[in-house]
């Protein structure tokens, strides 16, 4: 569909924001920890024009019809389904003092939803930069990320951390974003697998995950409860060297396993960054594999499709593999020699057929830039 066909006017511009894949550092963001995502070349694009009537009309290439609402009547819950995301972006911008006006918005995407690649954060970020762009407002990307997170937490009702939005807004091409949530600081870490004769496969196992459901919230609650029992503001405060003592102070095995995952995962991020800075990308592979084992056994958020994909990738020669994202479906990543990537993917496809799973799909994982206006 064209913008003119939907809205009867010409667009004023297009803005886009990418999805992300997290290299390592899973479920550490809401524990004040460390994460290391890259932005994907796959993006959500919002084409827009201004309106003078204080209303926003939203259409999507993936949904039929147009959803329309008044900006000054927005409140959490007032717009539902997929349109809650652009509505949430408009609501949070207005709540934060940005005098956005009415707009026509056409959303297009080559980013699969439900794959754990942060399509929701990309949609919020793309809508936010489009609405701000119509006013020629330049806002710090990290501030837009924080507003997008607020919209997803308070308007959509998903208790997500800040990693996805920061990756969508702040990543640069050829780098991973080293994001310290407690310090609210970022660093760009060189990450160019192709230059080292490597490939990073992203394989969608076609078992969709849902952040708004109870499992994600339950894991976050268990971490917060464990931190309270240990007398710290967040699990980031537990030093790796003090992990054994902390585990001994917890009352049950579930709490101990949740804490062990978070503390060891933060250490794995630190080790991965050190290796990447020194150009030893192949040595990062075993950290991926250790992360998956921790997510499977201690955090208990994998599903059979994820485990089969990881195990098969390793058996086929991958240097390391892990689930990525919130869990309970989504994607795995596998670090491979470039000339072995096709064989690893073929092995996963065969294993899925043998297990009776849906056929997986794969995405390019070239580290890309964050949100921008489309020239």
From TrEMBL:
Residue ranges of domain GHMP kinase C-terminal in the record: 273-353
Keywords: ATP-binding, Carbohydrate metabolism, Cytoplasm, Galactose metabolism, Kinase, Magnesium, Metal-binding, Nucleotide-binding, Transferase
Enzyme Commission designation: 2.7.1.6
GO cellular component: cytosol
InterPro entries linked to this entry: Galactokinase, Galactokinase_CS, GalKase_N, GHMP_kinase_C_dom, GHMP_kinase_C_sf, GHMP_kinase_N_dom, GHMP_knse_ATP-bd_CS, Mevalonate/galactokinase
GO terms under biological process: galactose metabolic process
NCBIfam families reported for this sequence: gal_kin (TIGR00131)
Protein name: Galactokinase
Source species: Kribbella turkmenica
